[in-house]
Every structure is written in structure tokens, then in C-alpha cells.
Amino acid sequence: MDAKAEDAPAMAGEARPIRVVVAKPGLDSHDRGAKVLARALRDAGMEVIYTGLHRTPEEIVRAAVDEDADVVCLSLLSGAHPVLVPKIVRLLREAGLTETVVMLGGTIPDDDVPAMRAAGVAAVFGPGSDLSEIVRAVREHVARARAGAAGA
Amino acid sequence: MISPPFGSGRDPAEGTAPGPAVAEREPTTLSGIPVQLVYTAEDVSELDPRRDLGTPGSYPFTRGIHATMYRGRLWTMRQFAGFGTAEETNERFRYLLAEGQTGLSCAFDFPTLLGYDSDDPRAEGEVGRLGVAVDTLADMERLFEGIPLDRVSTSFTINSSAEIILAMYLAVAEKQGVPWDKVRGTVQNDILKEYTAQKTYIFPPRPSLRIITDMFAFCAEHVPNFNTISISGYHIREAGATAVQELAFTLADGFTYVEEGMRAGLPVDRFAPRLSFFFDVHNDFFEEIAKFRAARRIWARVLKERYGAKDPRSLRLRFHAQTAGVTLTAQQPENNVVRVALQALAAVLGGCQSLHTNSMDEALALPTETAVRTALRTQQIIAYETGVTRTVDPLGGSYYVEWLTSEMERRAEDYFRRIDEQGGVIAAIENGFVQREIADAAYRYQLALASGEEKVVGVNVFRDDEPAGVPILRIDPEVESRQIARLREVKRTRENRRVRQALAELERAARSGANLMPPVLECVRAYCTIQEMDDVLRDVFGVYEEDVSI
Q1: Picking from B23-37, B109-123, B521-535, which range would have the lowest pLDDT averaged per residue?
Q2: Which of A4, A24, A29 to mutate to test the interface with B (most CBs of B within 10 A)?
Q3: What strand order describes the sheet that includes B229-232?
């Protein structure tokens, strides 16, 4: 469905704020983007949990479960995304988080995007992405996921 | 809600001469320093040229650290390189030397930076991705095969584990028959900015500083031509700091190292001549030049007046510069060649001693050989075609540049006061002040981009929506398994009794407070792995966990 971002919570039938886990998987130490995004999502009214650096896939999944996350935003600038991202998505699904939206940002070459999408990533944002676009995408994907869950 | 500056689709500014409307607010530098329409002698009336500028090569070195500057010797052209296994990086090193590069600069992968071997579960997917994988001396031997260590200087971007990488390099020199006093280069070894910016820390600040002062003492005696530290603003800036913050936090870190060295009982002139610096060179042309000039003046004055340094070499701030990775765009990547050229020119006009120019494709991946060559050629064009090397500090005496140099100095001093009030740099890191200042600046900048107040050509103005279409470097996924196989082979063939003894000796030294370099050297010669050594030190020193806040 094409819910307008602002209408999303109402259309999904609940007012609960969107809960986001912003995560830094692996040994990547570039955290500027993740921290800027975490603030932007918070300023857009979402509840944001930032994992901090150097988290294993298992730690990120645990955070998503514990925090009841609607969205997990992964930030990777290390080139380790082909290994780490599919693993995280698989572990999330195995943990029963079937509706949790996974989004990815960082230095992800265009050629890798189809594989990331195929692994279950809802959207990929590269360098130079507009913050407002990311915020909008988070709202839209969550609205869709909540609508899907409500209809199920 | 943040809105994009020009909505989507075609940009209204596209194709029209003046571009987006000239801002109505008072223009400022990227650091937020208000800039007047014109500067005159009145703006620099308090400047005493003899006292505040000196002549090139003389105190306070505002105009440069050498009297003859680039006429005497050009800056070192030093491209940061490293990926895959030691073989691949060795090949890139030799390529760069053949293309006229004059120094090496080595990038390590994240497992190496963080003290994990390539076969550790945490290293999965990371081996050789963002730098070369080094587990044991065997990798270092291969990395420098065919490169005589008395003929090149090598810079290593390594902080935690710097003592291990330096020991490996010295062990390679031994094997090549090169005496240690002929070995030249730099280990980054600047742990303070790891906690605030680059984030490849392992141990807490106190034991980390002890390792660093052990290296100061060891190198002063045995490796006199090696820079034991490269006090780095680069990562602070890339993490989002302004030029003023970069200047202030970097120099404050530098003062802290001086104090730690003196506290360890070393006379300041014994180690200060081997301290070097590493700055970012960003888009704001004159602000960057002023930053470098201010840095030299502040360093010379503080070393002389506060720390009593007398050796002129202690007072000279020598620096490497790298063009700003954060300014590279994934959109219209060929524009990056122009950005890099302008930034590199600012570094040269600011008097750098060595320079790395980024490659046009680095917002997307590690650079291809072709892209690196263009980046190196950019430096060569500045050096050999523009004529800017003919005269020293050609912008010295410019009303604007001198005013801005003094203004940067004043603003840095404000930060020094604020840091001192909190009890110094370590306290200001532990209480999160420095990290907050950087994160706030990063967020402010991102909001300014979103509002269109700051402009990036090809990204929020003058866009086109064609895909980038540049070839990018691919790291072979087999690198990881090849590296793991090599590591297993080393472990199988080394003398394991010697390994155990060396590691036990390392632990004893770590606990006793003895200088760590001799036992680390013995570990390295015994082909201990980087993780075996760091695990010993983790047990003794503990590990650092950052306070996560946004």
C-alpha cells in the first residue's frame, strides 16, 4: 500500500512510535553516519536505540528482540556487508522477527544492491543520501510492515 | 521535518550562471567564523610580523618549518594503500613507487587494527577488505619483499597494536640487513583520537598511553629516525569536527603526549623532535591554509613556553595532510578529481611535509589503480606545473589569511581553556565532551546540507540522476580463506615452545611496567600472531568500552 508517511501510524491502527535499532555490525569503526542518522530519526519522533560499535550479528539480533524494534538500520562502511548483512537478516527471522524491517546504509556498491535486496533488505542508502528521504523510507516501510502484520 | 533543498527532479539552478541564490546571512567559513567582505591592514593591526610570523624556518614557524621549503625538497607524495593479502598490497606499493611516489603508507584491515587474527570469528567478512591483513611477521616479510627498507619511508596507520607493527617492521629490517638507524617512517600510534574519532581502540587510555611512552623511549635510543607518533586531526575532522575543533583537539592531544612523555621521565627534547602530525585538508580553501599556519605557531609557542623545549626540532610542527574523504561524492565521482586538486593545493600552500590525495572513486570503494594514478598525478601537476613551489608561504602577509590564522588560533585557545577546566584531554574524553562536540558539529553540518545552506555540487545542487558508472575495485572473497590458510601454515611450522616463552615474557613485562618493546620484538621474531600478543595485553590491561550516546 502507498500510505503517506505522516498517515502511517493511524493507517496501521496504532499510535505506537516507531522503534528503531541503529546498529554497527562487525569491526567497522566508522560511526559518523550511524550517529547522525540516529539523531535524525529521533528528531523525527522515533524511539532510537544505537548499539554502539563492533557488534556481532547475534548481539544486534538480541538488541532488536529486546527493544521490540520495528526497524533495524545497519550501517556498514567496511566492505563486510556481503557476509554480515545476510547473516543478520537470517538470524532476525530465526528469532521470530519476521516483520522487522531491515535497512542498510554506507558504502554499498551499486552492483551489490540486488544481492542485499534479495537477502531481505528493504532499502539501501549510499553516500550523499538525504536524511529526509531516509526518514520517509523508514516510515513507509514500517507502515507497510504493520499493515501486513495487522492483516495477518 | 527536514526537506530537500530543491525537491526532486531537475534542479532549478542547473544550467544557469550564478547558481543558487547568494545567501543573505553573513557568510562564514565552514567552522562558522564570520567573514567580512574585505580585509585591510586594520584587521591585522595587532599582528607583529617579527613576533608572530618570523621568517620561514624560524620561530614560531608560522610561515613554514624550512627556510627553503619546496625549493629545497618537495613534499613526500605518499598514497595510503592496502588491501587483500600482503602479496596484493606489495604489488600496489611497487606500482606506486614505479609511478614516482616517494613514500609508502600502509592501510590495515579492521581485524589487524583491532588485534584479531584472520581466523577469529569476529574477523569473518572483514579480512583484507579495507586494508591489508597482517597476522604474523610472515605477512610483513611478504609485504615488503623487494622493497629495501633503507630506501623508503613507510607510514603505518596503526594505533592499538602500533608497538607490534613497528616491531614487525624492525624485524623485517633485521632480515634485510638494514640497521635500525636507517629505518624511516611513522606509526600513527595516536590513541587519544581513537576514543573520540577513529574508534579502533583496544585498551583503556592509561595503559594505552604507557605503551606509547614505552615506544618513545625505545625509539629515542634504537630507532632515531622513526616518527613514533602521528598526532592526527584527520579522523577527528572526518568524524564531523570543524576545522577549529580539528586544530584544537589535535594540538591538545599533542600536548598530552608531551606531558605523558615528560611524566615517564623523558626530557622533552629527547622525544619531541620525533612527534609528527596528520591533518585533514578540506574544502574551505583559506580556512585550511590558516589552520596549518596556526597549528605551527601554537605548537612552537607552547612547546617552548610551557614545556621548555629548546631544540628547534622540538618546536617545528611537521605534518602529513590528506584530502578530505568525507567531501568525496558517490554522485558524479569525476568531480572528486577537482575537489582533491583544490584541497591538495591548500595543503601545499599551507606547507605540508607529505600529502595523500584521495582517489575519485573512494566514496564507493577502495580505489582502483587508475584512480590512484590520477590522484598521484594531481600532486605531480601541482609540484611541477603550477609554480606554487617557487616561493615559501606565498599567502603570508595576506590580510585575510593572517587575520584568519590569528582567529583560528584564538578559537583553538578557547577550546584549550575548556579542556583544561575539565582536567585535561583524558578527562574530556572520559566525560564525553570531545565526542559530543564532534557529533554535534557532524549533525549541524548534515542539517545544513539538508536545508541547502551548505551545498555539495552533484548532490544537493546541480544534480543529475545518471548512475555513477565508474569501475570499482573488488576484493576477492577468497582472500579470507587464503589468509587463514597462510596463518595456519605459520602456526604449524613455527617453534611453539619459543612462542609460549615469548608470550609469557610479554605478560611479565606488561605487569611489571618494564618497557614493552623488547618482549614484543621477541614475540614477533617467534612468529606470535597479533591476536596472541593482544590477548595477553587484554588480560593485563582490560578493554575499553565506549559510552554509547547519540
Answers
A1: B23-37
A2: A29
A3: B226-227, B184-187, B153-156, B103-106, B76-81, B354-356, B319-323, B275-281, B229-232
Which residues lie below 8 Å from residue B94, measured CB to CB, with a gap of 6+? B146, B147
Q: What is the DSSP string of A120-151?
A: T-SEEE-TT--HHHHHHHHHHHHHHHHHHHHH
Q: Are A101 and B149 in contact (CB under 8 A)?
A: no
Which helix (H) or strand (E) is B98 found in, with range?
Answer: helix B86-98
Whether the per-residue pLDDT at B8 is higher than 60: the answer is no
Q: What are the phi and psi torsion angles at B73 (to 5°)?
A: -160, 130
B176, B181, B182, B184 alpha-carbon torsion, rounded to 10°: 110
Of A53, A56, A79, which is closest to B546 when you measure between CB atoms? Answer: A53
Q: How many CA atoms lie within 13 A of B529 on its CB side?
A: 24
DSSP annotation of B393 reads S
Count, residues in chain A: 152
**How does pLDDT run across B39-66, given as a tens digit for each residue?**
999 999 999 999 999 999 999 999 999 9
* Residue B318 near residue B65 (C-beta atoms within 8 A): yes
- Pairwise CA distance, residues B15 & B451, whole Å: 21
- Rounded CA-CA distance A133/B402 in Å is 42
Here the cell at position B528 is: 606470535
Contact B72, B392 (CB under 8 A): no
DSSP A112: G
Q: How far apart are CA B477 and CA B486, in angstroms?
A: 15
A137: left (phi over 0), alpha (psi -120 to 50) or beta: alpha
Specify the DSSP class assigned to residue A111: G
Interface check for A86 against chain B (CB to CB < 8 A): the answer is: no
Is the separation of the CB atoms in A107 and A139 below 8 Å? no
Q: Which cell is B108 given? A: 590495515
Domain B41-386+394-451's class?
alpha beta
Question: In degrees rounded to 5, what are phi and psi of residue B199?
Answer: 65, 25
Contact B165, B195 (CB under 8 A): no
Q: Could you identify the residue written with the cell 564531523?
A: B240
Do residues A107 and A126 make contact, with C-beta atoms less than 8 angstroms apart? Answer: yes
Minimum Cα–Cα distance from A52: chain B residue = B548
Contact B373, B14 (CB under 8 A): no
Would you report the helix, strand and coil content of chain A in percent, each value rounded to 5? 50, 15, 35
Nearest to B271 by CA among B232, B323, B218, B203: B218
Distance CA B318, CA B315 (A): 9
Calpha distance B238→B197 (Å, rounded): 8
HSE, side-chain direction, 13 A CA sphere, residue B251: 33
* CB nearest to B2's CB, from A42, A52, A131: A131
User: A31 to chain B: nearest residue by CA?
Assistant: B239
Per-residue model confidence as pLDDT tens digits over A31-82: 999 999 999 999 999 999 999 999 999 999 999 999 999 999 999 999 999 9
Strand order in the sheet with A123-125: A47-50, A19-23, A71-76, A101-106, A123-125
- Cβ of A62 under 8 Å from any chain B Cβ? no
Domains and CATH numbers, chain A: 17-151 (3.40.50.280)
